[in-house]
Amino acid sequence: MDITFRQTAPTTLTLALCAVVMFPLFWLAYTYAVPTEDAVILFEYARNLARTGVISYGHSGIPVEGATDFLWMVMIAALKRAGVPEFLSALALNFAGALIILSQLKDSARKIIALFGLLLTPYLYAALLRRLYPLPHRKHASSHPFTGGFSCCA
Fold this sequence. Notes:
The protein has one domain (3-143). 65% of the residues lie in helices and 0% in strands. The longest helix is centred in the N-terminal third of the chain and has 30 residues, at 3-32. Residues 1-6 and 138-154 have low confidence and may be disordered. The radius of gyration is 18 Å and the shape is globular. It has 154 residues and is an all-alpha fold.
């Protein structure tokens, strides 16, 4: 067996394991969480940029500065133009970023520790609580006592 393979195989396996653990949680967030506050505002800017090519808020088409994360807005707008919903774009970019961070760590133990850190975000657990305690009579999750304080990862 090649010495390079022996050194990279456990690292690749650990990274794959991290992806397998993270993917269902990100999908859970996409399925059950409701983006709020700054995320919704940024998604509106990204949607308008994808649709009209103008950075604007609302349907006025008048250029308005206000998106706080320019590169993030541009990346979400590019994915929106390709047909990917804004919230899914944000989660997919976060998922990719988490995998990039984990891939840069040298040993498996550090990857696992970093994975636990990534999994401690309250947004994923807000989505889980929304799944466990559905709100059929309410339109928005922000009025639910378990999910009202959390905002999106935009």
